[in-house]
Amino acid sequence: MYAIIQIAGKQFKVKPGMVLNVPTLDVEPGKKVNVERVLAYSDGKGLEVGTPELTNVDIDGTVVAHGRAKKIIVFKKKRRKGYQKKQGHRQGYTQIKVEGIAPAKPAAKKKAATAKPEAKADAKPAAKKAPAAKKPAAKKTTAAKKAPAAKKPVAKKTAPKKAAAKPAADKADKGE
Fold it and tell me: Fewest CB within 10 angstroms: 43, 109, 117, 175, which?
């Protein structure tokens, strides 16, 4: 039996009794942790994969300790430039012991799932009425924008005629 879970953006394959290091969590040692994002679950007979996660599997764990990983050295160098930089880093982690992986009770989940679609059905007609009221207002603003656009091309047509007459006058002056 195993499960694939996601904690703090990282995915882990866990089994009951396993101790794993996850990115630092804000939970005191000795407290219970319930993993909410279960991506896949296998009971040995078959594999259930969530889309994107499973809601019918509970994974319980206990925080064992907090710590920091082994130090790594970050060394940067640019040759022939006299540039060298040495820096160390220790990543923090939280140790969690997985106590159990169990399918959740399906009866409790089904009642909650049936109540939610009813509430959503009531909300959908109200949402449809609101955009209908906004559409006429949007049409008025587009009609107001079209009126000034009609006046501008008239002014542009008269301007090129005057500009074309001036170069012809200049050519006549040069010929004299």
Answer: 175
95 and 156 fall within a common domain: no
Domain contains 159? yes
Q: Is 4 helix (H, G, I), strand (E, B) or coil?
A: strand
CB atoms within 10 A of CB 133: 8
Q: In a 10 Å sphere around its CB, with 0-12 CB exposed, 13-18 middle and 19+ buried, how is residue 99 labelled?
A: middle
**Could you tell me which of 50, 8, 48 has the C-alpha nearest to residue 25?**
8
**pTM beyond cutoff 0.70:** no
Judgement on whether residues 162 and 100 belong to the same structural domain of the protein: no
At 55, list the tokens. 């809601």
Torsion, CA 121, CA 123, CA 124, CA 129, rounded to 10: 140
The 3 state secondary structure assigned to 17-73 is CCEEEEECCCCCCCCEEEECCEEEEECCCCEEEEEEEECCEEEEEEEEEEEECCCEE
| Same domain flag for 26 and 99 | yes
Please report whether residue 74 resides in a domain.
no
User: In 3-state terms, what secondary structure has residue 9?
Assistant: coil
What are the tens digits of pLDDT across the range 33-79? 988 899 999 988 888 898 888 988 889 999 999 999 999 999 999 99
